[in-house]
Amino acid sequence: MATKASRAAARTMISPAVILLLGWMIIPLSLTIYFSFLRYNLITPTGNPFVGWENYYWFVTDPSFKAAMLNTLVLVGGVLLITVVGGVMFALLLDRPMFGQGVIRIMVIAPFFVMPTVSGLVWKNMFMNPVNGIFGHIAKAFGAPPIDFFGQIPLLSIIIIVSWMWLPFATLIIFTAMQSLDQEQLEAAEMDGAKWPSRFIFIMVPHLSRSITVVILIQTIFLLSIFAEILVTTNGGPGVSTTNLTYLIYVSSLLQFDVGMGSAGGVIAIILANIVAIFLMRMIGKNLDA
Prior knowledge:
MetI-like fold; 0% strand
């Protein structure tokens, strides 16, 4: 049993790491909040007067903000739909005995370790390029005109790229949960005459619901800050068709040099992300208690 002396020693030894971690988080956040109340533009760095909530007002009333919020919701929702459905399907496939099962499992989870920038460039140049891309050559082979993915369906193209990266994560979590499924329950249901769809809906899905909730929670938090894939493929265009909230903050801060406006957008993004996280944590808590 831990004594008061041992607990005090543990707190003393861990306190430097905790202080460093808090400083690493709090100092940038404090500076972001501070800059958000200033008229701070890198083109005219002198002065920087206090303007209160002005940056927040102009950021929220910017027409690009509404488009960015809509694009963010569509991007997150589309990726979640593809990865959850695809993750369940891949988990069911990997759960079956097959030749080279270990190699196939490694190949399925491999895309998760590819850097977002590399992934975006590979998809842009090797797959979705209408002239030299693989999809373009396939379309020409069937006599169809190649699709200009980033010109005709830019947001869907981003969703496909991001889904390809996050699908292995969803598959791994759901497959791990599937390994703990009671096989005797499935065998008993099969002996009672239950068809596979019924076994899947009434036995597998309830068992996988917790892991699916975890996938939704973790992916949503990370998907709200998707940036690299947009930067290397579409640069937020055409127009603002692929501009999400993170990219809009980048445009304000580093392309328009308006640090005050970008900081205000960063604070808004943090607030929205925390609201979503709290909502999802409540949802996952109820699911785990059920």
